[in-house]
Design a protein that fits this description.
mainly alpha, two-stranded antiparallel ribbon, 2 strands, 50% helix, ribonuclease P activity, repeat
């Protein structure tokens, strides 16, 4: 498009092929479209990430499921009902109960969480068995209706510490965010 017509691709440029590959469970082709999108500076949004999560779940690519969960975590503070249904279906699945490591180094997990700014270890699926899935809301004070606990503030990651995602201020200040 750019070479021939001088037009930059947009998200809608990729939607037909992307949707078709996800619908037909052609995960590798959907991943290739996502790769091309990103290489052209087009960032997938929640619906695309949700579709990639769903196709990855259906074809059993747990490493991709994990990666897309964290892409979603990094790009959306809350998700649409349709995305929540995909997530809930994934965590209620038999496969979700089977995947994971029963033995891991707690010190390594702690170190990874601290290195990543708190709240995320990035070491893959830990633990085995069923997931506790609940619908809950968080009020303006940070109280969770599911467990009654107040959400804790954690250090944000290095990039967010340096660049404010709201105003774009660049500096070396210590930032905080609510961990959901």
């Amino acid at each position: 498009m750019e070479e021939r017509y001088g037009a930059s691709p947009r998200l809608r440029t990729y939607s037909p092929a992307f949707s078709a590959f996800c619908r037909r469970l052609e995960a590798n082709k959907a991943y290739a479209v996502e790769y091309h999108m990103v290489s052209m500076g087009v960032v997938p949004e929640e619906p695309e990430i949700a579709a990639l999560l769903e196709v990855s779940t259906k074809v059993g690519k747990e490493d991709k499921v994990y990666a897309y969960l964290h892409k979603l975590r990094g790009s959306a503070g809350c998700v649409a009902d349709s995305t929540a249904e995909i997530l809930e279906g994934r965590f209620r699945s038999e496969r979700a109960m089977e995947v994971g490591r029963s033995n891991w180094d707690a010190g390594r997990v702690k170190d990874a969480i601290l290195m990543n700014g708190g709240g995320w270890h990035g070491l893959g699926w830990l633990g085995e068995g069923g997931w506790d899935i609940r619908h809950a809301a968080v009020n303006s004070e940070g109280d969770c209706s599911g467990c009654g606990e107040r959400l804790a503030c954690v250090d944000i990651d290095r990039m967010e510490t340096e660049v404010c995602s709201i105003c774009g201020y660049f500096g070396s200040r210590k930032g905080k965010q609510v961990q959901f």
